[in-house]
């Protein structure tokens, strides 16, 4: 309970930082051309490197080595680290990237709380600032001068043009939500030009033919510490049923330390299930993704220990499925044609109650609230009204052990030209199975 109260206090501070309205867009002049450098992304509250996963693949589609794009991850509740320790970790990552690539400096990006971390870092010493060629401040803190004197671009989403960093290139994208600003095409185009002085050849995540490399971390949400004493098995699955194509995994890892796994050889067109099982627990987690398209070293498997705070959010029962639909672009359920659609077994689950634009939900928990075998998508459930970036919907999805059916999820995202993404998973019972479905934030 003490940790829960601490989280709620942190939530209150977060909402004090976030804007509430939108404004018109402007653009700034690009910097002179510079050679591409390695880059580091610093996430925000309750965030992880996954918020920059799409942009990393866009940069790679334009010739950046995938190994040159890294993420500084930390516990944004500060239960497991201090801000000073986060700064020291950034020192170490910059030094290692410079040594590995031969670059004289790195490019740095921060989002939300990550902008406070980044600004503090750049302002803390001239030596630290000297290691950073460009800084991008994404929908976070304002400033009355360039952080550390480093050339800066500030990107602002919905919330008004009153926010700025004096002396920076301030870019306003009023129709983009808070997390969306990290993953959008508009942000990528602006940042690429700021870093390189040229426009990108493409803003797509360009598919790679042949073998690709897949790797990342399994981390405990929201603390970003590695999942340990656990096993990870990776399976290919049939996209029509979600069932494994073989009983043999394509990769297996014993998770320890920071939860890193891979890279392993994969396919850009395959559908994968990542299965996490823990020593001493019968509860397992299944994580499903859309095809990765190209090499991805930034996969983040967001997990939690059985019986943890996150586990409290889910009502488990052997008769129903419980799942999380996650996307690094807010689900908008109250914007009409300008919003998103998401159906589960044909039932629409996005609306003004579950996912209003103001909620900024990127994670939607779906389960049979109160285990009454009934569906009611018009009510708020559980603790979700008090939590940032998360919401919940009451929907009954019958389960079986072993699974004897499927759960079909279909979504059309705003700005996606009407394309429908579809992920099908087995109907795992929630008393012993956690299901997470990751949808792309791009089409």
UniProtKB/TrEMBL annotation:
The name this protein goes by in its record: Alpha/beta fold hydrolase
AB hydrolase-1 domain residues: 38-125
Annotated signal sequence range: 1-23
Keyword Signal in record: yes
Domain AFL C-terminal per the UniProt entry, residue ranges: 210-306
Single annotated GO MF: hydrolase activity
Organism: Actinomadura rudentiformis
Keywords, alphabetical: Hydrolase, Signal
Domain annotation AF-1763-like C-terminal: ranges: 324-441
InterPro entries linked to this entry: AB_hydrolase_1 (IPR000073), AB_hydrolase_fold (IPR029058), AF_1763-like_C (IPR049036), AFL_C (IPR040664)
Record keyword Cell inner membrane present: no
Gene3D superfamilies: 2.60.40.2190, 2.60.40.2200, alpha/beta hydrolase
Pfam families: Abhydrolase_1, AF_1763-like_C, Lipase_C
Source lineage: Bacteria, Bacillati, Actinomycetota, Actinomycetes, Streptosporangiales
């Amino acid at each position: 309970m003490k940790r829960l109260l601490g989280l709620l206090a942190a939530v209150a501070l977060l909402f004090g930082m976030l804007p509430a309205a939108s404004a018109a867009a402007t653009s700034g002049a690009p910097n002179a051309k510079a050679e591409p450098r390695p880059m580091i992304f610093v996430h925000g509250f309750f965030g992880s490197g996954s918020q920059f996963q799409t942009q990393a693949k866009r940069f790679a589609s334009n010739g950046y080595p995938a190994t040159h794009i890294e993420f500084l991850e930390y516990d944004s509740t500060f239960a497991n680290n201090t801000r000073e320790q986060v700064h020291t970790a950034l020192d170490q990552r910059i030094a290692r990237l410079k040594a590995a690539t031969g670059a004289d400096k790195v490019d740095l990006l921060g989002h939300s709380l990550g902008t406070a971390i980044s600004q503090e870092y750049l302002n803390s010493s001239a030596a630290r600032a000297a290691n950073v060629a460009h800084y991008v401040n994404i929908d976070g803190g304002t400033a009355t001068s360039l952080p550390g004197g480093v050339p800066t671009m500030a990107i602002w989403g919905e919330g008004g043009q009153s926010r700025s960093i004096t002396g920076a290139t301030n870019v306003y994208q009023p129709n983009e939500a808070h997390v969306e600003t990290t993953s959008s095409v508009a942000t990528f185009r602006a940042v690429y030009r700021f870093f390189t002085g040229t426009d990108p050849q493409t803003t797509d995540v360009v598919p790679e033919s042949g073998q690709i490399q897949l790797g990342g971390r399994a981390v405990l949400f929201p603390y970003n510490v590695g999942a340990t004493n656990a096993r990870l098995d990776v399976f290919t699955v049939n996209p029509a049923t979600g069932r494994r194509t073989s009983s043999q995994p394509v990769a297996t890892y014993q998770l320890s330390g920071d939860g890193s796994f891979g890279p392993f050889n994969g396919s850009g067109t395959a559908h994968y299930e990542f299965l996490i099982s823990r020593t001493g627990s019968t509860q397992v987690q299944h994580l499903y993704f859309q095809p990765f398209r190209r090499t991805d070293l930034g996969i983040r498997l967001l997990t939690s220990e059985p019986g943890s705070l996150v586990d409290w959010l889910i009502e488990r029962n052997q008769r129903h499925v419980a799942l999380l639909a996650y996307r690094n672009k807010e689900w908008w359920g109250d914007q009409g044609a300008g919003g998103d659609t998401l159906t589960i077994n044909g039932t629409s689950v996005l609306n003004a109650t579950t996912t209003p634009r103001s909620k900024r939900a990127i994670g939607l928990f779906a389960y049979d609230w109160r285990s009454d075998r009934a569906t009611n998508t018009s009510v708020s459930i559980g603790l979700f009204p008090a939590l940032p970036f998360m919401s919940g919907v009451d929907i009954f999805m019958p389960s079986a052990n072993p699974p004897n059916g499927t759960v079909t999820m279909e979504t059309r995202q705003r700005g996606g030209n009407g394309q429908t993404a579809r992920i099908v998973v087995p109907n795992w019972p929630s008393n012993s199975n956690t299901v997470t479905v990751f949808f792309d934030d791009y089409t």
